[in-house]
Design goal:
By secondary structure, the chain is an alpha/beta fold. Helix 3 packs across helix 4. It has an eight-stranded mixed sheet with strand order 1-2-6-3-7-8-11-12, with helices on both faces. It contains 13 helices and twelve strands. The longest helix is centred in the N-terminal third of the chain and has 20 residues.
Length: 338
């Protein structure tokens, strides 16, 4: 195909919905907006059945970043390796969800989701895989409710918020009055959340299309680009009270690493986490700096703990070359050894 033909074909695909979330799934559990999706695992040959995993996504952005497109689907890879795989879709909150708290998400929704996974897989425990903010929620849950957790794997998970990453600077108390925002809007406007991430690299919003044109004849690049761009713009908010608490308690007061964060009547103590831990970080993550995630290693009580650092940025851990070639295979091996 000539360069002109490649560009013409590319232009015809712009604005159309790409093939996102392609892996077949079934509904395992539903509560309010939350859904737990199950993915059929390949039958292992000559090996014991693997521990099932529940992927805990961030409350910001849609769940299908880990099932983005064919060939760039973490859930498809895990299921193909014989691992019973489940994933949380937090759904799209509305005005009626504005008063949901962090405790609601951790102590109620996540607990019920994990109970449903264990019941569906007919096991007593499952492993948690937390991605970004979802990893922070999984950390909180494991510290408070370890009974159902066989192991904990984290991808680009913010833990220590005392750093100069641009998002942490923007959310500091002296620059950002989260009370005024939540009191005025309830759930923070989706456009506000999206613009904050876009402003981190404002010129990239233009230059990325130059990259796309230069790779118009690379079908893998084009398919991944279009799917990722669709995901970036498929914005979703999160419950206002949860947003308020996370910004105050984590971003502004750094309570998690200090052992002061309370959910309900209990305090989250990271030292109480003793399950096997795999902590995956990206060396060039500008959303969650490596140091923010790496700080966890000295805070947990786990005897079996491993830090896996790979090249790339934040989304390189979910859909990049580092994910496909390094993170997915090594995490699969880690899960099979639980």
């Amino acid at each position: 195909m000539t360069q002109l033909a490649s560009v013409t074909r590319l232009l015809s695909r712009l604005g159309k919905k790409p093939n996102i979330a392609p892996t077949p799934s079934r509904l395992v559990y539903q509560e309010n907006k939350l859904r737990v999706l199950g993915y059929t695992a390949a039958i292992p040959r000559g090996r014991r059945r693997s521990v099932p995993v529940l992927i805990v996504n961030s409350l910001i952005n849609k769940y299908y970043i880990l099932d983005l497109t064919p060939g760039k689907s973490f859930v498809a890879y895990l299921a193909g390796q014989g691992i019973p795989t489940y994933m949380i879709d937090w759904g799209v909150p509305d005005a009626g969800d504005a008063r949901l708290t962090l405790s609601d998400h951790v102590n109620r929704y996540l607990h019920h989701a994990l109970e449903a996974v264990c019941a569906d897989a007919r096991v007593e425990q499952a492993a948690l895989i937390g991605y970004c903010m979802g990893g922070t929620l999984a950390l909180m849950y494991t510290a408070l409710h370890p009974a159902l957790v066989r192991g904990l794997a984290l991808l680009a998970t913010p833990v220590d918020f005392n750093n100069n990453a641009i998002l942490n600077l923007w959310t500091r108390r002296e620059y950002f009055d989260v009370d005024k925002l939540v009191d005025a809007f309830g759930n923070p406007p989706e456009q506000l959340l999206q613009s904050a991430f876009m402003m981190m690299k404002p010129t990239k919003n233009i230059t990325k299309y130059v990259d796309l044109l230069q790779n118009a004849d690379n079908e893998d690049f084009v398919e991944t680009f279009l799917a990722f761009d669709y995901w970036v713009n498929d914005v979703v908010s999160l419950p206002g009270e949860t947003f308020r608490q996370f910004i105050k308690w984590c971003c502004q007061e750094n309570q998690l690493v200090q052992g002061k964060l309370k959910l309900g009547r209990r305090t989250v103590k990271l030292a109480q986490i003793t399950v096997p831990l795999l902590n995956v970080v990206a060396n060039h993550d500008d959303v969650v700096p490596r140091a923010s995630s790496e700080a966890l290693m000295s805070l947990v009580g786990s005897r079996e703990k491993e830090l896996l650092a790979v090249n790339g940025g934040h989304h390189g851990l979910s859909i990049g070359q580092s994910a496909v070639e390094v993170v997915w295979p090594q995490m699969t091996q880690w899960i099979k050894q639980l």
